[in-house]
Amino acid sequence: MNHRRTFTGPIFDFIVHESNKNMIKIVHFFILATATGRRLYVQQGSNGTIEHLKYENFENITWEIRPYCHVARIFTEYFDTEDSNDYVKINNCSYSGVTNFSIVISTPFDVSFTSDASRTRSGFILSWSCENGTYS
């Protein structure tokens, strides 16, 4: 039996996945820092998905990826942002427009998204997973 529960507070929200083996795994956790207008999400585990579709102007979001491994792969499932104006940054590499990528990266790492004041596009879905044999 699998259950999913969401807990919400004034500055936090997290989802807990309970399996039939009496184990609890936090599969998603984020902190909303409203004072600066910046949103911060933290993901842990052996894999995850960053989905940000139908984004708005003036966004500034960071996902801190803290996997249970030393090396991970992050890749596009879907990617469509305003070319040269709305971009995803992973470490020191920026991506915008319609693109595909798959990169192997040392962990932990950050993924940030910034949009400007003009047009928006449909957004992006990124997936990440630990590379074999690199668990800590």
What does this structure look like?
With 136 residues, this protein is mainly beta. The protein has a single domain (3-130), classed as Jelly Rolls (Sandwich). Helices cover 0% and strands 60% of the residues. It is built from no helices and twelve strands. The strands form two sheets. It has an eight-stranded mixed β-sheet, with no helix packed on it. It is elongated, with a radius of gyration of 16 Å. Mean pLDDT is 81; it is low at 1-20 and 22-35.
SSE inventory with pairings:
Elements: E1 3-8, E2 12-18, E3 24-33, E4 38-45, E5 47-53, E6 60-67, E7 71-80, E8 87-90, E9 93-95, E10 102-106, E11 109-114, E12 123-130
Parallel strand pairs: 4-6
Antiparallel strand pairs: 1-2, 2-3, 3-4, 5-12, 6-11, 7-10, 7-12, 8-9, 8-11
Summarize the structure.
Helices cover 0% and strands 60% of the residues. The chain is mainly beta and 136 residues long.
